[in-house]
Structure formats: C-alpha cells, structure tokens
Design a protein that fits this description.
This protein has 319 residues and is of the alpha+beta class. The protein is built from ten helices and twelve strands.
C-alpha cells in the first residue's frame, strides 16, 4: 500500500510530518532548497488584483522560513467555457507583476478547466542553513512581533457583499499585495528564534502551532495588535467569514481570554488572513534592532504584540 512505502530521505529533510511553512531539502553544504504551493478562489472582483494577491500569498511561505525565492510555476483552474480567457490572462499578469517585484521568473505551470476560478503559485526558494527559521523553535523569554495588520478575511467578506468602503478596500489590497521579503531580510540580519506567516488559520491558529511545536506558552496583548482601518466596525456589523468562525471554534479550548476581550476582538484574532504578515519570535534583547530593520525594509508593522513563556496551563493567553 502507498501509505506503507518508505523512502530514505537525507538528514534535515522536512516534509508533511510537521506544520512548517515549506518543505525543506538539503541542497549543498550551505543551503537548503525550500518549496511551497498555494492557490485559492478570487477574493476581489478585479482579475489583475486577484493575481497579485494570490502570488504574494504564495511567496510568503518562503520568506517565513528565512529564504528567498528562486522561481515559480503558475497553477490555475478556470471555467474557459463560461468566461473569456482574457480574464485568466489578466490574473496571470497580476501574478507576474508580483514575481517581478520578487526578482524571480515564472518558468511555466499548469491549468485545468474548473467551474470556479483558482490561481496561485508553486514557489521554489533557497535559504542559508544558518538562516533557516522554523515555526517550532520559539523560546521562553522571546517577544512576538507582527509585520502586517489583521483584518483581510473580514474585509473580503464585506467586499463580496458590497459593504466595504473604497478606502478600506484599497488598504486591504495594499496589505495583501505587500511582499514579506523585507521581513525575511530583517530577521536574517538580526537572528531570530522562530517565524511563521499568518494566513488561513488566523493569528491564533498559527500562534497555537508555534506554541505546540515549541512546547511553550504565549501571552498576546490584544490592544497592541495592528488592525486594518475600519475592520473592527465591519466585525461589529457581522461581516465574519465562516473560516474565521471555524478558526475560533478550533482554538478556543487552547486560549485563555481575559474577560474584557469582546467577541469582535476574538474574531479578529482568529480571522482567516490572505497574504498576512510574519509572526516572529525574537529574543527580547534583539527586539529593538529587529523593529528598526523592519521599518527600514518598509514592512507595514513592527508591533510587539506579546511574549513567550515556559509552557503553562494554556498555550495562549489573551489580555
């Protein structure tokens, strides 16, 4: 049976056994090859913008592990019998624009017919062995820094219902198309203990993976979390995606919420992000240097949002 097949892998290989952001394969004495794939359905109406967001999201896993991308492949599903192929072209042109910003080529890809459009990238990158950053190596005494504001899932839901003001839509697009390359460069220069990118499981879901993998607990300060403009008000109006609600249901047994945390704040902390920021666990004495470099590298946030402690009753505490 396929499930019983065993393959001898080189030492230090990382595959699907763990919850790391990329597969890792030894390349030479000094480098690992890292690879990831991600694609999803449109979250905005404009095809070009959708392509940009999907490409930036696909690149994010490479940056989260301290690497830099080398090249990419398109992966797409498209209803070519129902929609003109010019729309697919626009989507891929948006993706190409983002990979140009990342200074990498798209070398090919694969497309199939499907009733619902989907687009993303397979991305291959490289990371110096000394810079490989896992999500399972946070240490007690670290502080947690987040490099992008939260709220894209809630805003995307409001966009789909034509209830998001243009200014809020524009900021959300700017956040989602912003590459995490600057964050990767900053953390490599300083030296950090752990990192993950905030995507579909939300901040709490990805932090829970970090806590469980690292065997530590963390406290986050809700009032220090950077948010996209207008998103709290949208949450109050009920624009909560199903994925965000499921995320919160999943993490609640592992989170101790302070009594003053509102339901809207809980949803924001669990909001399913697209192309979110990096969550970096860094020694406290390096935090200021990292913050300065994040700003120099034009990251959207350098907020210290919490701290890491020895394992306690709950993996996560929210104050």
């Amino acid at each position: 049976m396929l499930g019983n097949l065993k393959v001898d892998l080189p030492e230090d290989t990382i595959g699907f056994e763990s919850s790391e952001d990329c597969a890792v394969f030894p390349l030479d004495e000094n480098h690992y090859l890292i690879q990831s794939v991600d694609f999803f359905t449109p979250i905005v109406d404009d095809p070009y913008t959708f392509g940009q967001i999907a490409a930036a999201n696909s690149l994010s896993d490479i940056y989260a592990m301290g690497g830099m991308p080398l090249h990419a492949l398109n992966i797409a599903e498209f209803p070519s019998d129902d929609l003109p192929l010019e729309i697919l072209t626009e989507i891929m042109q948006g993706g190409l624009e983002i990979t140009k910003q990342a200074n990498i080529p798209i070398l090919g890809g694969h497309t199939i017919k499907d009733p619902v459009p989907k687009y993303g990238l397979v991305v291959t990158g490289r990371v110096k062995k000394k810079n490989l950053t896992l999500n399972s190596t946070a240490k007690a005494g670290d502080v947690l820094i987040l490099t992008k504001p939260l709220g894209s899932g809630i805003i995307a839901t409001a966009i789909k219902k034509d209830k998001a003001p243009r200014s809020i839509m524009e900021e959300a697009v700017n956040v989602m198309t912003n590459l995490n390359s600057g964050g990767a460069k900053a953390m490599n220069a300083v030296g950090v203990n752990a990192c993950t990118d905030i995507t579909g499981y939300g901040l709490l879901g990805h932090l829970l993976e970090m806590c469980e993998g690292s065997k530590i607990s963390a406290t986050i300060e809700c009032n220090e979390i950077p948010l996209m403009q207008g998103v709290f008000e949208l949450a109050q109006k009920g624009f909560i995606p199903g994925g965000t609600k499921r995320n919160l249901d999943h993490v609640i047994p592992n989170v101790n919420f302070s009594k003053n945390i509102s339901q809207e704040q809980k949803y924001l902390l669990a909001d399913a992000q697209t192309s979110g920021g990096l969550l970096i666990s860094v020694p406290k004495d390096k935090a200021e240097d990292l913050q300065n470099l994040l700003m120099e590298n034009q990251c959207l946030s350098s907020s210290v949002i919490g701290q890491v402690y020895n394992s306690a009753e709950f993996p996560i505490y929210v104050d």
